[in-house]
Design a protein that fits this description.
The structure is a single chain. With 420 residues, this protein is α/β, with parallel strands linked by helices. It has 3 domains: 126 residues, no CATH class; 133 residues, DNA Cyclobutane Dipyrimidine Photolyase, subunit A, domain 3; 117 residues, Rossmann fold. The strands form 2 sheets. It has a 5-stranded parallel β-sheet, sandwiched between helices. β6, α17 and β7 form a beta-alpha-beta unit. It is globular and about 70 Å long. The C terminus is likely disordered. Bound molecules: flavin-adenine dinucleotide (FAD). Flavin-adenine dinucleotide binds next to α3, α5, α8, α9 and α10.
Length: 420
Amino acid sequence: MFEPTLAAARAALAAVNPAQYARTRNALGGAVTRLSPYITHSLLSIPDCLQTLSTKHTLSFDDKLVFEFAWREFFHHVWGHLGDKILQDIRPPVWPGTYADTLPTDIKQGATGVPVIDQTVRDLYATGYLHNHARMWLASYVVHLRKVHWRAGADWLYGHLLDGDLASNHLSWQWVAGTFSNKPYLFNAENVAKYAPAAYHSPGTVIDTDYETLDDIARRGGNVGREQGQHLSADAPELVASYPNNLWAGGRFDLKTLESIAAQATGRPIRLVHPWMLGEPPPGNALNIGLIHLPFHAHFPWSAARWAWVLARMQALCPVVFVGDGDDLVPILATASAVNSTATLNGHYSPLLKKLSTQLAPSPRLLPDQPRPCNSFSKFYDVARRSATSLDHLLADGSANAVPRRWHQSGLPGMDSPAI
Ligand SMILES: Cc1cc2nc3c(=O)[nH]c(=O)nc-3n(C[C@H](O)[C@H](O)[C@H](O)COP(=O)(O)OP(=O)(O)OC[C@H]3O[C@@H](n4cnc5c(N)ncnc54)[C@H](O)[C@@H]3O)c2cc1C
């Protein structure tokens, strides 16, 4: 479904219809774009997408699609200000009990007995993708009905998604949990029946109830457990901290090989290609070296499918891919004439790149980043709208994309206040 090529990314973009998207996006079968793996790995940027779409469609800040793109930029804005603090509760949880810190096996195996959850887990394993509504239902069930801490669910989902993005994923889980919003996100069987096909409908299960009851379970109840009876279980793919050997015919390059390749690059700049910059390389004669910095992946392991996707694209771009502790590259790259890369907010890759690269290009963005931390999406979007006269103006004005991302350690004022 998501070939890791520029041609596939462009074909997916060419198929987007913003008007149909706005009408149908809430339904699982709706005209959503499925661009997320390409955007996460920068085969497409949001400004690229809107530039291309605006040649065929009239778009403005009022378009639902522009609004949804902006959610991604908002989450990255928050990540830029909070750094790795997005991985912890931003506000206190809605339930006073202690959430479990691991995901129960029946959830991982899609054997809860709640069809919408079990079907969603199977979809995730089969495709590495979920519709936004399915992600919300899954997260809500995990946190509020099964009393699993959002972080355990978020790490697991992140590893299986081809579009896994720490900011969008972990902050969305916090939004569902109520630690980055002012109330828990809840859903019931009626809501599923409205937006999903019959195989997901879940009458007679724990979610077949009213919102008052669900709110009571979320704030005062206990773990509702799986549905009684026998339920078929799916094979849960493992999440692994490095690529599985049998995946990659190219094999792993040792430091000696890399050293000799780097030495041959005399006079050519080296471009370090990490997993979040897999788009078209800029013109020039740079030697592309793929970079997999394993200390990050030890904390956030990926499914074999995600490894295969990223490595296939990296291999298409780079004659050599380094897989290891990136600190080992420091002496090898010390003699390079120039080392370039693209900035990322990733808490492991970012400090490494600063150590290794002489020049970091900013990651493209649509909306000008705001120097003051903003704790709500509507305020963030409002400020962006007011600062640009129109979307066309913003797209024509490259300056928005040139604003480098900052890495602030300061918290977001008011973020932990219940007034959000
Ligand atoms: C629990 C949970 C986990 C999520 N994890 C991720 C993740 O790891 N990576 C990720 O990219 N998105 C994540 N999202 C956001 C959203 O669900 C996906 O971006 C979207 O479903 C991807 O499918 P699409 O490309 O067809 O989206 P479309 O609906 O077609 O939207 C177009 C693009 O807009 C952006 N977008 C749309 N909705 C959102 C949103 N709510 N938040 C942020 N960006 C959005 C994405 O870049 C998306 O590709 C998560 C949402 C939830 C509720």
